[in-house]
Amino acid sequence: MQITLVVPELIWPEPDDRDALDALPCPGLGTLIARGQLDRRPPQSVEATLADTFGLAGNVAYAALRILGEDSPPAAADACWLCADPVHLRLHQERLILADGASLGIELAEAAAIVDDFNRQFPDVGVFHVATADRWYLQLPRATDFRDFDVLPLSVVAGRRVARQLPDGPEMRWLRQLLNEVQMVLHRHPANEQREEAERSTINSLWLWGAGVLPPASPRDFAAIWSESPLARGLGRAAGVPVRPLPDDARALLAAARPGRQLIVLEALQRAVQYEDADAWRAGLLDLEARWFAPLQRALASGRIDHLRLEAPTAYATLAWESQRGDQWKLWRRPEPLATIAQALAKADQ
Questions:
Q1: How far apart are CA 277 and CA 282, in angstroms?
Q2: Is the dihedral of CA 97, 101, 103, 108 positive or negative?
Q3: What per-residue confidence (pLDDT) applies to 149?
Q4: How does strand 95-100 pair with strand 2-6?
Q5: Among 180, 232, 269, 316, which residue is least crowded by beta carbons within 10 Å?
């Protein structure tokens, strides 16, 4: 069995933050890193990393792929789609700071009411859809040229400053106009009035990204994909790969998985880094160590797994450690503290 494990934000992005990085007992992870062969690529989003895994590059149609991975994908999966995710933008020191929908505690009824109003207000633009309370989509009535649509995925901008929401070119003027009108609807929407009365952050804009149509099927040799990520699940479905719910831990996965390459996506650390919550990141890492890293390292050393690739999109770089069974017996490669690893990664960037 071969395992590819994708873990965004595996290394805390501030190498000098001793409170975050010191005294983290992660022998399983440390051994996989110490005895693996490191491949280092430029930093990129977890979305781009997943797309790479499936042989996709450039302006990937993330919206079409993500909606295919939802629990109830629409029949028109081959349409032209945009992710139209609800966000809150606030001005801080003359820059816009974005909070994504997952941080806003949006209720499904709120989402449905707002999207219903969008569909009444903008019937000629397309059809808005609600997949979950914080994942919305815009289905366009016809294919549109989005080759220069270079909007960052929401995961890259959540909790951070944003310079602009949409490309500046004239070909996207209609979409910028739509966004302005959407913001006006949101400003006076009853759902937001109720949120203001309750002293909750409003939904005052959308993050429009991932535009395009579903790419042609590109079969991959994975035996299964184990993930709760709708994008990962959509990539799997588009490639004809079986998609499975993420098990509780590595032991459950090894008991259920058939021989072949397995892709596992663990996103537990991403939000903590996006919103600079070092305590949550530490707790999440220790949980991943107990449930995934340590048992997978033991399975690799014992020969139950033949090969493991640990892939980690981080602020330092897109990192990947490749390990074979025999590598785990190179005892002279001793694990190092994560603080030391972070310092080394930061120095390599200079």
A1: 9
A2: positive
A3: 85
A4: unpaired
A5: 180
- Closest C-alpha among 154, 284, 140, 269 to residue 213: 140
Alpha-carbon span 291 to 296, nearest angstrom: 9
Contact 170, 104 (CB under 8 A): no
In the chain, what is the straight-line distance between the N-terminal and C-terminal CA atoms, in Å?
38
Three-state SS string over 256-279 comes to HCCCCEEEEECCCCHHHHHCCCHH
What is the spatial distance between Cα 313 and Cα 150, in angstroms, rounded to a whole number? 19
pLDDT for res 172: 86
Q: Where in the chain is the domain with CATH 3.40.720.10?
A: 2-56+217-349
Q: Whole-angstrom Cα distance, residue 121 to residue 181? A: 9
Q: Is 252 helix (H, G, I), strand (E, B) or coil?
A: helix
Domain 2-56+217-349 is found in CATH 2.60.40.790:
no
pTM of the model: 0.93
Q: Which long-range contacts (CB under 8 A, 24 or more apart) does 239-242 make?
A: 239/54
Listed as ranges, residues in the chain with pLDDT below 70 are: 75, 77, 349-350
